[in-house]
Amino acid sequence: MTDTKTRLEEVQSKIEDLSKIETEFTVTEQKKIEIEDSINRILVQLESKNDEINKLEGFSIGGAIKSIFVDKAKSLEQKRNEYYSLSKAYDKLKIDKAGVYFEYKILNDKVKTLTKFKKEFEYLIELRAKELLTENSSQGHALKNILKDFDNEKELLGNLNITKAILDKVLNRLTLLGAAFSEVESYTSWKRHRGRNFRFSKRQAINRAKELNLECKLLLNELEKSFSKIGYTYRTIDLQLVNFENILGMFFDNIFSDLILQQNLSKAIAEVDSVYNKSKKIKIDILNRINKCEKALKRLKEIRESIILNK
């Protein structure tokens, strides 16, 4: 047995002995927070009661009706009793706090020790893995095969996350593009007021639509390239807006040109909605694959560890 393997077993044993400490520490930490909150609340109540008592004690009976004075005296006695009860509760909490803090400190020190052992364990696992990879043993060969699978899954997960990031951009830009098309469409209505700035505003809306349309096409091309890296067979449908882009170049402002623009816009909006919905479905599939990949990596990591520990 190598020195690394011997130390690995020692550290693993110490970790197992301290494993329950983390749960106890979490519970004690929560107690610490709760008792601090309770003390702060009581301090606020004590301050409030003290103010009420001071006001009542400052009450002058000169010229006051006797019944009013009696009511004030009763109220003062009640406030003092409430203050006394709160003081007792505060004193008890202070005692409880001391006990909780003492327990917290002990557990905190143990958790720090546990953390050190866990770091050492990870270091020793990697060191032992390197030793096994140089050995011509069944254990070493098994580890090599697992590491290949692990690296493949890790690479796949990275590409899946890249694809998801591109999809998020695609969905965002398609939403903006749909809104931009709708804005341009609103300028084709001849019921709309056509003042001095109408043509300028219309041209701005068209330019925004053209820019977003180009962004979407570029992102969809980028998305299609990323599909090849994750073994995805779906091919993105390019937004068929060549004719629409030609129409956007028209500077005419008449019923005929607006009618043509409106017809193309209706098709473009429908197509954007279609690509958006397909992209959403793809994203759901990608998220499912990411989840499966993460589970596979976790499982492979456990197998790798069991091989290294020779379980």
Average pLDDT, all residues: 83
What is the count of distinct domains? 2
Structural class estimated from helices and strands? mainly alpha
Report the sheet with the most strands, covering strand number, pairing sense and barrel closure: none
**Beta strand count:** 0
At the first level of CATH, what is the class of the largest domain? Answer: Mainly Alpha
| Rg over C-alpha atoms, rounded to the nearest angstrom | 36 Å
Q: How does the overall form come out from the CA principal axes?
A: flat
The SSE order reads HHHHHHH
Named CATH topology of the largest domain: f41 fragment of flagellin, N-terminal domain
Low-confidence runs: 61-67, 238-243
Q: What would you note in describing this structure?
A:
This protein has 2 domains: 3-134, Helix Hairpins (Orthogonal Bundle); 149-308, f41 fragment of flagellin, N-terminal domain (Up-down Bundle), CATH 1.20.1330. The chain is mainly α and 311 residues long. It has 7 helices and no strands. The chain has helices at 3-18, 21-57, 66-133, 138-186, 198-229, 242-248, 255-308. Helices cover 85% and strands 0% of the residues.
